[in-house]
Amino acid sequence: xxxxxxxxxxxxxxxxxxxxxxxxxxxxxxxxxxxxxxxxxxxxxxxxxxxxxxxxxxxxxxxxxxxxxxxxxxxxxxxxxxxxxxxxxxxxxxxxxxxxxxxxxxxxxxxxxxxxxxxxxxxxxxxxxxxxxxxxxxxxxxxxxxxxxxxxxxxxxxxxxxxxxxxxxxxxxxxxxxxxxxxxxxxxxxxxxxxxxxxxxxxxxxxxxxxxxxxxxxxxxxxxxxxxxxxxxxxxxxxxxxxxxxxxxxxxxxxxxxxxxxxxxxxxxxxxxxxxxxxxxxxxxxxxxxxxxxxxxxxxxxxxxxxxxxxxxxxxxxxxxxxxxxxxxxxxxxxxxxxxxxxxxxxxxxx
Length: 351
Ligand SMILES: [Zn+2]
Description:
- The structure is a single chain.
- The chain is of the alpha/beta class and about 350 residues long.
- The chain has three domains: about 10-70, Muramoyl-pentapeptide Carboxypeptidase, domain 1; about 85-150, PGBD-like superfamily/PGBD (Muramoyl-pentapeptide Carboxypeptidase, domain 1), CATH 1.10.101.10; about 170-345, Zn-dependent exopeptidases (Aminopeptidase, 3-Layer(aba) Sandwich).
- Helices cover about 45% and strands about 10% of the residues.
- It contains 13 helices and eight strands.
- The strands form two sheets. Strands 4-3-5-8-6-7 form a six-stranded mixed beta sheet, sandwiched between helices. The protein has a two-stranded antiparallel sheet with strand order 1-2.
- Helix 10 links the parallel strand 6 and strand 7 (about 290-295).
- The longest helix has 21 residues, at about 325-345.
- It is globular.
- The site of zinc ion has 5 residues, from loops.
């Protein structure tokens, strides 16, 4: 689906959205097919629940999320294919297998190689033909089991995989400058482009990380504008240990200001990394603390390594735009970001 579905629309697509949202428990009393105020409220409530941008508009991301949310475990056969299968049925499968002590990966709803290997291991242990396909037989076996062998929860396993205390020496860090090429990102009130700021900041961060002993790669060249999936795919192919995506925040209200950092919804490592960077940025640049938040952005979800999206300022705020145009300020910002990454890699979390 390419077209946006918005309030005021009257179409079969609206009917589809309404019936799916109703199945998910949202109340809608608009006439079927008419995108009125109660459909708008339901879309916003759904977006909020799924950590999407809350705008009440059904664009490609919200539509995909609605479709994914509609799958229940056992509705379909899950197997390894490209692109990977996605949905809430995969989340349920990962939860069950992880609880049983198999390693199905973090509960991201993506049926990738880890989930495939976990299904095979489950089938082997329970005497089911070992084909890595989650179909009716495997579902029946899984449904009949009590969760009596509590394994290591997925988030602890993610911790172990990305063990703290190693420092940055030899770590492969992918820095992802947002936008690029023809996509200039958001423009500030006096015309500073998000893409240019992200590029400059990325090169400053990359230099400093390399100075700290890390191996550093950028997710793109300057004239390129890869999709979020392509950026995540490149980071995965390179075997990234860490991904730092750089963007700027924007708001119709020009006084909106400050730094926010986003991490994948269920990634503890990502959350700790986001907190560590945010702490240093706020301390060293004196900007307003808009905190770290869970988000379901594609770049955060599709990367295998812990990832954060850093939005250190609002380019729509005239004062912050001025600072973003100042290379010394960006250098200070890069210092703070790298300090946060180092602290996270060396010390990890206090709890
Ligand atoms: Zn951006």
